[in-house]
Amino acid sequence: MHVETSPMGNSLDQAVSVFVELRPRLFGIAYRVLGSAAEAEDVVQEVWLRWQKTDRPTVISPVAFLSSATTRLAINVAQSARVRRETYIGPWLPEPIDTSTDPEVGAQRAEALELALLLVMERLNPTERAAYVLREAFDYSYAEIAEILQLSLVNVRKIVSRARRHLSAEPRETVDTAEHRRLLDAFVSAAQTGNVASLEALLTPAAVSLSDGNGMRGVARVPVLGRARVANLATAYPRFWREADVRSVQANGRTGAMISRDGRPTTILTMAASRAGIHKVMWVFNPSKIAAFLDSRSRSTSALGAPRDVS
């Protein structure tokens, strides 16, 4: 990663200019660490407030300073979020974000962006997750990560290696964008027509369906396992599809389906697949997460203006 080394002046205009340029990266770091667009936005806003109050002429590298502040704050938020999620009713899924305007969300690579991987990353502790994100998605050097996390270089190498090992236990093979969309379209079409046999043909034997509703009525509160059960769940409520308007959206770099009723989005459907078929079906019903997805569409455009000044 190229690190800016020139000190900057103290004018607020300069502060805004630097922050706006780096904001997509800061959001991308916070979002991958937290799995929540709303929490990531809060982190970025707090970093902006700190940046305003900083003695900026003494900052040699704004990108290093802001990356450090974002990462450390995101780790703190992640630690408290873990406690809150213990009371979550049913499966918890990361908040999907609209990536139609920024496919990689500020990163140098789209690594650690797909919902299925973000979900697996929940198994990492916040420091492991942050180190992995900085290295794999943003290409920070081990020395830079050590500085950000205030750890030794040896320790950081071990942490990143341990995170990779944890994640390698999960199947990471995936299909290309076109095949992913074809599978999703075929799944939706079969579900709409109640074609269980076609659904089963799309799914792997060990497929799992996860429904995130935080206790909403009618939403499965446990993972549904197995090809037949997943197919049956997708067709169990014909009215669900009959009254729905379904359209494609870009969610976390992949095609997803936004399902609406009476013009109101109620569900986001995404999936993970390999050459063997669809192995994970993810349904987001939680209204706050759907609202966050809709809000994320304006994130990249609002970032072109000045951050909110709450001084």
Automatic annotation (TrEMBL):
This is RNA polymerase sigma-70 factor. The keyword Transcription regulation applies. It comes from the Bacteria. SUPFAM superfamilies: NTF2-like (SSF54427), Sigma2 domain of RNA polymerase sigma factors (SSF88946), Sigma3 and sigma4 domains of RNA polymerase sigma factors (SSF88659). Belongs to the sigma-70 factor family. ECF subfamily. Keywords: Sigma factor, Transcription, Transcription regulation. Residues 116-167 form the RNA polymerase sigma factor 70 region 4 type domain. Residues 21-78 form the RNA polymerase sigma-70 region domain. InterPro entries: ECF_Sigma-70_Domain, NTF2-like_dom_sf, RNA_pol_sigma-70_dom, RNA_pol_sigma-70_ECF, RNA_pol_sigma70_r2, RNA_pol_sigma70_r4_t2, RNA_pol_sigma_r2, RNA_pol_sigma_r3/r4-like. Interacts transiently with the RNA polymerase catalytic core formed by RpoA, RpoB, RpoC and RpoZ (2 alpha, 1 beta, 1 beta' and 1 omega subunit) to form the RNA polymerase holoenzyme that can initiate transcription.
